Amino acid sequence: MKKSTLTNLVAILLCCLSTQLQGQESWIDTSIHSGLIELKTEYTFKTLVSNDSIKTTTETLKNLNNAKLYFDKIFQTDLDFAVLFIENKEWSKYAYFPPPGLPQAGNGNVILGLDKSVVSREIEKMVTQLPEQYWTSLKPVYGENIDLDLFYRETLSIHELAHLYHFKEGTKPQRKWLQELFATLSMYSFIKEQSNSSYELMDTYPEFVIQSGDRMAEFKTLKDFEEKYVQKLTPQNYEWYQMQLYQNAKSIINSGKSDILIKLLNFLINTDLNKNEILSDSELSTRLEKEVGKEIAVILTNWKHK
Ligand SMILES: [Zn+2]
Fold first, then answer.
1. What is the pLDDT of residues 59-100, one digit of tens each?
2. Cα of 159 to ligand 1 centre, how many Å?
3. What distance in angstroms lies between residue 164's CA and the mean position of ligand 1's atoms?
4. Which residues touch 64 (CB under 8 Å, ≥6 apart)?
5. What CA–CA distance (Å, rounded) separates 203 from 271?
6. Å from CA of 163 to ligand 1 middle
7. Model confidence, pTM
8. Whole-angstrom Cα distance, residue 92 to residue 9?
9. What is the rounded distance in angstroms from the CA atom of residue 245 to the CA atom of residue 283?
10. What is the residue range of the signal peptide feature (predicted)?
């Protein structure tokens, strides 16, 4: 090969690489960034706030950065994303959907509450109206006044960040419960392995909800979850499903299956509905067992409510 040909080849390769890098940057939807204030941080991802006089972001950003480093290593990537902290009163202007303060992610953005979330406030009110014996277990973890933002923001922001790793590939999943399980498995694994001081914040509230039983859930089948999802289920019913998935994720990670994260991510990408036909439940179960692991396939077959 002549030297000039080689130089040309290198130039072409570099050009492709820079196009790819530009492609990576452009996946972030910046249309919702205008009007926000950029915070200076030591982290590689961009941080924007709707009000820079509210100082509630330090701990959350530290956790998100640690989670990013952990996920990047497992998923062999360097995810580019932005974090937006939005006050409740500004929520509808910047966030993709309500309720104000509940973490959400999409198009390269993680959107979090800046002040006390509406969801936490309402649930705190409901919980503390119960006889004290029912919620006394929450006090040592969430404080005398029960601050559920320690769950809804600090913990769920990690679940939302995990979603970006499959959204990045533009996946339309075979089942929504699979993408929710993926985000919860990732969150559980990170907090258990790398952020153990947050473990009780993640685990105590779900255990409390699970112990209070099924009465908040009108719908309980996986089929209902697919059809109704966030929009057509009450918040309590949606949470009920998430808590069932949390229990499954907990037992899978606790049994030492950490390679399940990358396998499940690849499965979401390889079975993307934009490029694949929808699988029947039995086809899905067979493929999950073969490509991800038996423990995921049994969630489908052993789901209590048919
Ligand atoms: Zn989710």
1. 999 999 999 999 999 999 999 999 999 999 999 999 999 999
2. 6
3. 10
4. 43, 45, 83, 110, 157, 158, 161
5. 31
6. 7
7. 0.90
8. 49
9. 21
10. 1-23
What is the whole-number distance in angstroms between the Cα of residue 14 and the centre of ligand 1? Answer: 37
Buried residues in 3-25 as b, exposed as e (16+ CB within 10 A):
eeeeeeeeeeeeeeeeeeeeeee
Enumerate the H helices of the chain as residue ranges: 3-25, 58-75, 91-94, 118-129, 132-135, 139-142, 149-152, 156-167, 176-194, 199-211, 222-232, 235-254, 260-270, 281-291, 294-302
Distance from the alpha carbon of residue 186 to the mean position of ligand 1, in angstroms: 11
Which among 32, 42, 23 is positioned nearest to 93, based on CA atoms? 32
DSSP letter assigned to residue 198: G
Question: Mind listing the pLDDT tens digit for each residue in 53-63?
Answer: 999 999 999 99
Of the candidates 110, 92, 98, the one whose C-alpha atom is nearest the C-alpha of residue 159 is: 110
pLDDT band at 50 (very low <50, low <70, confident <90, very high): very high
Which residues are near ligand 1, the ion (C-beta closer than 5 Å)? 180, 183
Average pLDDT of the segment spanning 16-34 = 68
Per-residue tokens: 30: 């910046």
Q: Which long-range contacts (CB under 8 A, 24 or more apart) does 69-76 make?
A: 70/190, 70/193, 70/194, 71/161, 71/162, 71/165, 71/186, 71/190, 74/261, 74/262, 75/165, 75/261, 75/262, 75/265, 76/262
Read off the pLDDT of each residue in 130-146 and give the average, rounded to a whole number: 92
Tokens for 235, please give them: 């918040």
Q: Is 256 left (phi over 0), alpha (psi -120 to 50) or beta?
A: left
Which of 238, 219, 226, 200 has the alpha carbon at shortest distance from 123? Answer: 238
Tokens 């969801």 belong to 119
